[in-house]
Amino acid sequence: MSRYRHLAAFALITVAALGLTACGSGDPADAGPAAQAEPAGAKGKIPTTDVVSAVRKDEAAAALLPKDVRESGTLTIASSVGNPPGAIYLADGRTVAGQDIDFADAVAKVLGLKLKRQVAAFEVILPALDSGKYDLGTGNFGVTDERRKTIDFVTYINDGQGFAVREDSKLGKVTDLTQLCGLKVATGAGTTFEATLEKNKGRCAEAGKKAYSVQTYSEQGALWISLQQGRSDVVMSTINGLRYAVAQQPGLRFLNEFHRLDVGFAFKKGTPLAPAFQAAVNDLKKDGTYDRILAKWGTGESAIASSQISPPEHK
Do the strands 252-268 and 213-217 form a parallel or antiparallel pair, or are they unpaired? Predict the structure, then answer.
């Protein structure tokens, strides 16, 4: 199969999976990590090692939950699905798996909670937290100073921003966004990448160069198709997501990390849930579950020393 056909096959598989997000909520019972998996793309299979079921409740961490939450025993979580290794659908089209899923499920077990998981588009989750539609959200949400104004975070990994191109691209390591001037940059809608690109677009004119164009996509599959078909020149996305994509399909090249960000569970500003979730993540670090989750998804470089509540953005 040619390089472009491989890329198209991977992207179309992703589009098919992402199209299912419009169906609404998934059954939390189907979101376990031990489900049978099929190939994630051009290579390999989605890992299915069970790293959650052995997790036990920590009474001290659970005691930090508000009384009404302890009594109900449930929380509603919104999960953005479709950007592996964070979250992806398995072959049945309804079971979700991924690093975000494992961390959320493991924290819930530490706190003695049941999660009612609803699948939602990345760009709608943070605004919906303020309305009370969801109690928390996951979607590889990077902690930025701008987001901290309206959202509380409890960190569990460190990821960040990076770039990928086709193998035939002449673009090298990106250390300054003016290197993108004149290019078509594809990225996810409503992301920190879009905000970073839009904020710095004017720097090209200041440097006497043609501005880069920002092309946003709600679906990762459409983003990769745009790169494959030459409608975009470079992709800006999560470091872990780019490395996963490059490993799964031929003809792509990961350029470099650009800016590291802590990633966390997202909550409404002022949430009383943050201390309990912080304690739960740190509990997972102590019992080894934390490292097992990272090892399962090949993201060991994303480990953090300890969970924090809404830390300042890395500069």
Answer: unpaired
